[in-house]
Amino acid sequence: MRHLVTGGAGVIGFELVRQLLEQGDTVTTVDVGKKGGLADLEALAVRHPGRLEVRRGDFAQDRALLRGNFDAFFHFAAIVGVQYVTDHPYETMAVNMRTTLNALDAALESGCRTFFFASSSENYAASVDRGLAPIPTPEDVLLAIDDIALPRWSYAASKIAGESAVFGAAKLGKFTPIVVRFHNVYGPRMGPTHVIPEFLARARAQVDPFPVFGADQTRSFLHVDDAARALRAVLGAALEGKGGLYNIGSDRETGIAELAQVVFDVTGFHPKLDARPAPPGSVRRRVPDTRKLRALGFAPQRELREGIAECWQRLRG
What we know:
- By secondary structure, this protein is α/β, with parallel strands linked by helices.
- Helices cover 41% and strands 17% of the residues.
- α1 (11-22) links the parallel β1 and β2 (26-31).
- The longest helix has 22 residues, at 89-110.
């Protein structure tokens, strides 16, 4: 099969590309390289001669970067990261929406069989906090924006709009639409703007007391290897015409304070925990209902402690 992956230099995109190549498929990636990672893709191309094409550029401005005949489109490129989104809400909306619309237009032109859109659990965070959605949270819940004026919500707003656009475009192109809502995927290539690499960086710097924002909150963490395996399982369903929404995540709920203790154990650094309030708009609990994904035969293989240890070894070099 031939695939196009936008955001192929990112944490999830790169691992998906790697696994697709390992199973013998051909992949084209498009990435602007804003957060690095293009060298990793180039190295991957050397290991799989003739089967990985790396295109560098901003397809929010140049849709020609997406041209080609593909069986599957995976649109993963987006502005992410709570702090960056909070500081740049308009850029977040503009880039995320323009890239999504351009990717969908290109998919319609290519006549692809399926289109994957990387969405987010942030889309229903407000529903969880207001008691309108259960925990664990299934796919068919009310999507909501808690405070439209709060910059943080620009990300969820762009993802909700993207979900609607995917299902609308599918009616025109006859491709199978897939929306995957990722839940705290992490891995050793992840940048410093997410909770696990943030904790590991503080441990490396031996920050004591150790600040933990939202220590009483919970999340569910999924290693990127498992996330890519989950995507491949969903791809199999999509190629059989089974579209729709899928939660991609772990159903194991982990407290942020508990996460910090795992980091302390892995790194051997045991500071005093300094619990601080969570940032505005941060959901109290996040646990996906993964029964729909598990029905495809998927089950996570990487334990959280093992995954954090891998991230720690990479950080230390």
